[in-house]
Amino acid sequence: MKAWEVRRPGLGIGGLLLRVDWVLVILLTLTTAVGFAMLYSAAGGNIRPWAGPHAMRFGVGLAVMLAVALIDIRFWLRCAYPIYAASLLLVIGVEFVGDVGMGAQRWLKIGPLSVQPSEIMKIALVLALARHFHKVDERDAGRWPMLLLALALIAAPALLVAQQPDLGTAAMIAVGGTALLFLGGVSWRIFALFGCGAGALVPTVWYRLKDYQRDRVLTFLDSERDLTGAGYHGFQSKIGIGSGGEFGKGYLEGTQSHLGFLPESHTDFIFTVISEEFGLAGGLFVLALYLAIMGYGFAIGFMARNDFARLLAFGVTFTFFLFVFANIAMVAGLIPVVGVPLPFISYGGTAMLTLQVGFGLVLSAKVYRDVEMEEETSGRPAGPGSIAAMR
Amino acid sequence: MAGVRSRTQLIRRRALLLGGVQIGMVGVLAGRLVQLQVLEGDRYSRRAEDNRTAERLLTPARGEILDRRGRPLAHNRETYRLLLVPERAGPIDAALDEISRIAVLNPAARERVRRTVLKQPGFEPVVVLDDISWEEMARLSLAIAERDGIFTSAAQRRIYPLGAAAAHTIGYVGRVSQKDLERSEEAALLRIPDFRIGKTGVERTQDATLRGAAGTRLVEITSTGRQRRELGRREGLAGETLHLTLDANLQTFAAGLFGAETGAAVLMDIRSGDLLAMVSSPSFDPGAFHDGIADRREWQALASHPLHPLSNRAVSGQYAPGSTFKVAVALAALEARVVSPDQRFFCNGVHELGTGKFHCWRRGGHGHVDLFKGLQQSCDVYFYEIAQRTGIDRIAAMARKLGFGEPTGIELPGERSGLVPTKAWKQKARNESWQVGETLIAGIGQGYVLATPLQLATMTARLANGGRAVLPRLLGGAGAPKLGIDRRHLNAVRTGLAAVTGSQRGTAWAARIQQAGFEMAGKTGTSQVRRISALERRLGVRKNEDLPREERDHALFVGYAPLKQPRYAAAVIVEHGGSGSKAAAPLARDLLLAAQKSGTIAS
User: Fold this and answer.
1) DSSP category for residue B69
2) CB pairs under 8 A between A and B
3) Per the CB < 8 Å rule, is B51 touching A301?
4) Which of A119, B157, B251, B263 pairs as cysteine with B79 (C-beta 3.0–4.6 A)?
């Protein structure tokens, strides 16, 4: 350990701020600026009702993100399970007092705020699993008690959210959790086993789907099935993207979005607006922006000095990736229509705040890169010559 | 530490793997974008364009209808309307209250607006006040200048300067009905809300010429069909101007002759077949049907009126021609050479056929009667005699030559063919054989014989023009071939007709034209509406005036003028007018005199 790296208790706020990965913050801000511009367009060239609040929310979220970043990562390690537990309670709470929006119970009103506990859960689960796989022996990582506990951590929120029913979010929670299992060292064989099990479950899940969900899947499988009904949104979105061509129709000139053919152009379908108005160039620019953000998250994970920080950085980055992929794949007609927003661009507070907290944690991993995580390691000898479960 | 390091390695390795997967997935997204935007971009661009644009048709200006001297019979006038866009005008009641403070808004209009608002999308304008003057429009525009959702606009309205006087001939336009849509191939044009289609008269038969071609307007629309802006415009083609043969002055004059009487009058150029006037009474206001909704009630009232003001009696009224038909019978007899003009028959007031008795209108009889006297005094017995000698089929053949028994082909809807009975016809229609007595009845234009006023005028024209087969036309006549009737026979009949008005014993002496050089010739007719029984005849209930109006005889007169080188033919029928000489001949006289004085035909 180099001397300057262990001087962490004496750094002070200023010193800590200097260690924040500002490039990542700037990339996130840039993405939000793209969101601002597109929300301005989606409102027909108006700050209101979306662009202004979007910027304000980002500002508030930025403060929260920096606050989270400056808090010692060991605090987050200690709080990982309590935060998970609280989030789980909120998800359960939604079952009883949640507001129904778009045919599913997803919203919880706390005072003036409407929050989607399932969004918070995406990050809380990453925290909990990172905590779970922190400093475990690689032999233990593959063991059943370890594995079953991890599975329980994933399954509980995933099933609850699926019950709401919000399949998109449930799937994201499940996939995000599975990625953490993979990163945490669970054996390939177990993944293969579970893969087969999941395959066997497909008919059961299909049987339990609601009509509109089944419609969406069927529509997706046969995209011209019902262009005026369930397939309308997806098809109009494809028209929007496709008609943008290489360089788009120009800012504020998107006909699909401005003439009302595109539904939800300010939330889930905002990528279509980008693609329509700026064409392939605009879409690739946004993808590049996201890749850069992912790259930074990845780099922080790589440079981290302990498992918790690593898993946290990789996990948050992967969750972020899931948002991006699910949303764009949906609007581009690669997967069925699911309600997943485009990070930092779609209008909607909870998802943005959730990701900002998530990136706050990633930044915290960078800021507190050098701290020793002694409290969990004592008395646990590393197995000599043990072979990583991965092999 | 080896374990820790290897675990770190494991996590990093797996993170790299996962990162690789992520990059790959983002690559898939990029590939998908390339596929949609570059490879299939054109297809989606077309779809987007289809989504966004719609072609809206522009109503073409309807062609004008002018009379023979270029005076307007139907034209378009710019009128102004007050419209309201429900979604921008706010609560409908408040908006209507606001309008009623600055303009007169009757409860019916109010109710209509409220109903319309409920039926159509909120961005579709509703007409609140129609046909307001320019001054009113200017005043209202000022008053609502600051008000969103209420505005004034210009529209075309069809104007008929002659009004009711030419309503049956010119016709009128109205909203397109379901039937109109089924009849027409230009459904798109007809679906324009402002489009008006010819409903009857020339407006209907010449609709294709008058309507023109629709212009198009390419507009940008939203997903709900709201128009956002105009992208392009191609003006339509205005309808063609139609020149009719009618003379506006004579038409108005002819209509004025009827007063409260019902009937029809036709005035025709005997050489060309040009119709100079054609009226049917009672009439209606052709401008009243422009807007459908409120006018539907008015239309219903007209349609169910006992006097049938909507029907054009001149072409669709079928009457027994009465004694006017004697012209045809006389020509048939002469052409068949069964009688000569100076051959005499004795009229003692009744003609007996077997056990049947056929009375002359004059109970005492006319004594010795030749063709001249027969026509002059309209002796029925003379015509019973020559009809019997000629036979019904030869009479029918002559009647057809003169224009009876089939539509003339006039450019008007609803023309009837009348009826010229023959032996074959009766066998077919009634499955009975022809009786000689029926020939006698037909000989005086009663019984089965039916003719329209237009056919009567046609017959008169053909007689007066020397036997040329003119056809009555509103759009200008065509050549008229010779009918092949002996000129001497025509002259003989014409001499008789000249005496009808030209001699004191003639049936229309009282209605003669006294001005020298303008004299007319003609034939009176009285058409029985109701058969007078032998019992009534004995009881003396013979006088028309004693019968209820709807059972009284129709009065007819056909005539032409001037005597020398005739130019005009007229046919007049006054329904339930009584005798032709008293009720119909004076109208024909006035009409023929007016026509000659108007100099409407250059001679």
Assistant:
1) T
2) 159
3) no
4) B157
